[in-house]
Design goal:
about 190 residues; alpha+beta; 7-stranded antiparallel β-sheet; 7 strands; about 55% helix; globular
């Protein structure tokens, strides 16, 4: 992997780049050099103050934008309430871990799935208890493992938690979105 003016060039030829200042950051992934006119890309934009963001994806040939919300940030916000700081120790450690140990595919999957999970949890009458569970059993456990250098355990806990929450809270909505996408795709093939 090497760095040039377009970002980090990875061994397989794709590029990645992190930009931003203070409260607004962007992580971009390009299938090849961004100066090539036919490149495809995914941009993850995040506002650390509000916890909101978007994913702009052109990998299908069309520009698709998805709003994102982070359930880990939401869990911290619910736990700390009035004293919440987006740069709290927990989120700072988890972001460092994400940036250094989590694959780009897993990051993209998280940011596609997390907003659906947050919406489903927010609609649940036990949402406060669910966010407490996430804080105590995912965030705290992962942070302690990372502090102790047990990155494999932290990664497995993180990934298995996402898959579990996806199954528990987001499956129905994700299935509906898939059906909608397939119907749209089928319609455009006939045209």
């Amino acid at each position: 992997m090497g760095k040039d003016k377009y970002g980090y060039k990875h061994d397989d030829g794709h590029y990645s780049k992190m930009t931003g200042k203070d409260d607004k950051v962007s992580y971009s992934i390009y299938d090849k050099n961004p100066s090539d006119s036919d490149h495809k890309s995914t941009h993850i934009n995040y506002d650390t103050e509000s916890g909101k963001g978007s994913i702009v994806d052109t990998t299908s040939g069309e520009k698709e934008t998805t709003d994102i919300t982070c359930f880990l940030t939401t869990a911290c916000m619910k736990h700390f309430k009035d004293t919440f700081d987006d740069n709290c120790q927990e989120l700072t450690i988890l972001r460092w871990f994400r940036d250094n140990f989590v694959s780009q595919e897993d990051i993209a999957h998280y940011y596609q799935t997390a907003p659906v999970i947050v919406l489903a949890i927010d609609d649940n009458p036990n949402s406060e208890a669910i966010y407490d569970y996430i804080y105590e059993n995912v965030i705290n456990v992962c942070v302690e493992a990372i502090k102790n250098g047990d990155y494999k355990f932290a990664y497995n806990r993180y990934k298995n938690s996402i898959l579990s929450f996806e199954e528990t809270f987001a499956r129905k909505e994700l299935q509906n979105r898939l059906v909608k996408t397939l119907k749209k795709s089928n319609t455009s093939i006939r045209a």
